[in-house]
Amino acid sequence: MHVLCVAEKPSISKSITQILSGGQFSTRSTANKFVKNYDFEYYFTNDYYTVTCVSGHLTTPDFFDTHRKWNSCDPFDLFEAPVQATIPETSKSIERNIFNEAKNADMLMIWTDCDREGEHIGSEIEKVCKRAKRTINVKRARFSAIIAQQIHNAAQHPVNLDRAQADAVEARTILDLKVGAAFTRMQTLALQRQVKKIEDEKNVVSYGPCQFPTLGFVVARYKDVQTFRPETFWFIYLTLSQPSSSPGDARETRFTWRRGHLFEYDAALVIYEMMITSGSLARVAKVTKKETKKWKPLPLTTVELQKAGSRLLKLAPKKILDIAEKLYQQGYLSYPRTETDQFDPQFDFASLIDKQKDDPAWGGFAVSLSDGDFSRPRNGKNNDKAHPPIHPTGHVSNLIGDDKRVYEFITRRFLASCSKDALGWQTTVEIDYEGEEFYATGLTVLEKNYLLVFPYDKWVDNNIPDFEKGEEFQPSVCELRDGQTTRPNLLTEADLVALMDKNGIGTDATIAQHIDTIVTRNYVIERYEGATKYLLPSTLGIGLVEGYNQMGLEKSLDKPILRRETERRMVQVCNGQKSKQEMINQSLEQYKEMFMIAKGNFDKVVTSVRNYLERHGDAEQGRPGDGQGGGGNNGEGYHGSGTAGRGGRAPEGRSTDPASRAAVPIIDIIIPDDSDDDSQPPPRTSKPPSARQPPKRPTPPPKLPASRNHDSGQIHCNCGPAVQRTVVKESASKGRLFWTCPNKPGCGFFKWDDDVTELCNKAIPAKRPFSYRQEPSANDSESCRCRCNLTAVRKTVQKEGQNKGRMFWICPNSDAARCSFFEWDDEPPRAEPAHDRPPAASGSGGNKPGTCFKCNEEGHWANG
DNA sequence: GCAAGGTC
């Protein structure tokens, strides 16, 4: 029998050929320079194999000529316009190749990635091959890693294509095209007609279900920055100065107040006065000394490369990916699009480390790893079963510029991940002063280990003197000091990548593209403050988002919820709960309704955009010298250490935008400005008040709703009101505020302050409380449904363990009748892999309970 | 002149 195998990409076709052929194969080139056809005899079945590939999707949906031209129809007609899958010119050679190969084959075996898109690509391949040979037998090989045992198993036990998954993707592609085209044409044509600065027909004002929420994140943060009003807080500053070894020098230990700081002056003053009037001494309550570690970095995924690279190398995520792609093509890096942060057990570290031995900068470190310092990289939680984490595959020394920096980062990260965690010695001294707790933490770095090769991480000594339990002393300084909350930062690209990732906007391969899109569309401007790049919405970007928000649409176009509903409907199609056509119809109805409202109220967008473009249009030119653009918080954040108050005021002069896009008139920007902030209390003195003298109380700021008190309520733990504290430990979170239980031992409550703020602002969902699911409602056709097609119920993990307190959705039936449906509340809904799905799952939705369909690494769920 | 998703 002649079997034609078609993989999703060239690298996979080559790998499976090497495994199945045992290295004995012949190669034919094709009209596409990346695609090769490999021929061999498969020893185990005595079949003749040809292995080739496509390069991702073969087709892209498009309108017919009747609707393709912008002025050919009313944009609304696009929702009902017929759409056909077309093969773009660039894919024609690939199509011809599999068409010709299929003519001679008895069986088509599809080897695409095992995900929804892979299933859809499989169906595209099937169509071409069936045109070539109607009777060809179509099968699908299922594999999750390129390792010999799995590949042989897949070849010998092929299954059928999963039509439901392919249908879900097809529905999504059609919807994306229709919705994107309809909204883009409508808003572009209307704005070109009515706003002078946009009248040039080259100005496309695009709408896309991913790009708009991406813009929404940038605008929401900008608004947070703009509406921020600082609040004054009070804290007790306590130090002890001791003679040091060098004469005339004093060694100062700063103790942090366990309460962090208080926003009520009276309360702080009462506590402070009690302390200073008692005349008693501070007593050392506890000294803890323990070994501590700074963990080496995880193996590198695409999203992590973009986040870390943008933060550390100050390069745009798209640029980083482009460079990594180029270095991959040149053979210096592994495949740069991967979700995997764990190396295979058989991964050959030694030879890769060897290749770095001659590098003048990190060669010595590579040698030391080979000489015994090697330690297997940590395992992350992600594995796309297709590609290893990003790592250098060869050494190169002649790179320059950004290419060099990206290669260096990836290589150092790889070597660091193969090294040992850094080791330190941490001392914590807790003192009691009139019933108030203070503490100081010291760190001595014992072994730098991975830090030697990874300068991007900082971990430095912070020595404090020796203290003994029970020791008493008179503090050198004990003052009531004030500080002010500082405004949040504008988004960095790294923040945005993380937000998109968390909200399921785009995929690892497309996130960077979406960010690039909103920049090239002039919705967002990249703005540097120092070396850090912040994302600032343009007047056009804000105008659009605000205009749409004024329409009172139930589901705003600039929020992730619509995309999430599309995602949920796709899952329902995959589960057989919905047909492709039902999904398309439901989504189209929803978008058509929104379109009519948007069109009917478009004057709001026009007015808003016009206002921003014309009223603020010259803002930057009109107000030079305000360098507040980045909104850079200098890292002191809320700590209020008594030095200059608001963080991040850049040196005088305008920040320059190296992206020369700033020349385009419609992208003027409004710089977050606090000059008209009349509610702000007087600036606090830069000099601390003298010791033991309470500062003169500044004018209290007006009460602002939901600013600090988070929805006018205190944050509560299980025991009552929680307290706010600051991370003092040397770590990535140093200086960050959090809320915790005030009792010792308490209930263990913990929440980051910025998560709480985000949750309250509803602009950026926080990690855990954020739900991807809809609560059941009267009209709950979109609610989370289990496999019995019942509305799922949300429960909370009670069992002790890392998931305790986490919420999940399951079938509402009682134990015996409960089906195997399970989804985490804080993770996007996902289609169940076909191989794990019980046969009854397809069809009308009926499903016998008791089949465990999901391998769950946490082991939290096993039904039946 | 529209989208988002693959991949080179």
From TrEMBL:
The cross-references to SUPFAM superfamilies, in alphabetical order and at most eight, read:
Prokaryotic type I DNA topoisomerase, Retrovirus zinc finger-like domains
What Enzyme Commission number(s) does the record list for this chain? 5.6.2.1
One Pfam family matching this protein: Topoisom_bac
Among the GO molecular function terms of this UniProt record, one is: zinc ion binding
Please tell me whether the keyword Ribonucleoprotein is annotated for this protein: no
Biased-composition ranges, Basic and acidic residues, are: 376-387, 828-838
Sequence ranges assigned to domain Topo IA-type catalytic in this UniProt record = 162-595
Instruction: Write down the chemical reaction(s) this protein catalyses.
Output: ATP-independent breakage of single-stranded DNA, followed by passage and rejoining
Q: Where in the sequence does UniProt note compositional bias of the Gly residues kind?
A: 624-648
Q: Which GO terms describe its biological process?
A: DNA recombination; DNA repair; DNA topological change; mRNA processing
> Which region ranges are annotated with the description Disordered?
376-395, 616-715, 828-852
Q: Which InterPro entries match?
A: Topo_IA (IPR000380), Topo_IA_2 (IPR003601), Topo_IA_AS (IPR023406), Topo_IA_cen (IPR013497), Topo_IA_cen_sub1 (IPR013824), Topo_IA_cen_sub2 (IPR013825), Topo_IA_cen_sub3 (IPR013826), Topo_IA_core_domain (IPR023405)
Source organism superkingdom? Eukaryota
Q: Which residues form the Toprim domain?
A: 2-144
Domain annotation GRF-type: ranges: 717-756, 786-828
A GO CC term assigned to this protein in UniProt: RecQ family helicase-topoisomerase III complex
Its annotated function is as follows: Introduces a single-strand break via transesterification at a target site in duplex DNA. Releases the supercoiling and torsional tension of DNA introduced during the DNA replication and transcription by transiently cleaving and rejoining one strand of the DNA duplex. The scissile phosphodiester is attacked by the catalytic tyrosine of the enzyme, resulting in the formation of a DNA-(5'-phosphotyrosyl)-enzyme intermediate and the expulsion of a 3'-OH DNA strand.
Question: Family assignment?
Answer: Belongs to the type IA topoisomerase family.
Supply the name of the protein. Answer: DNA topoisomerase
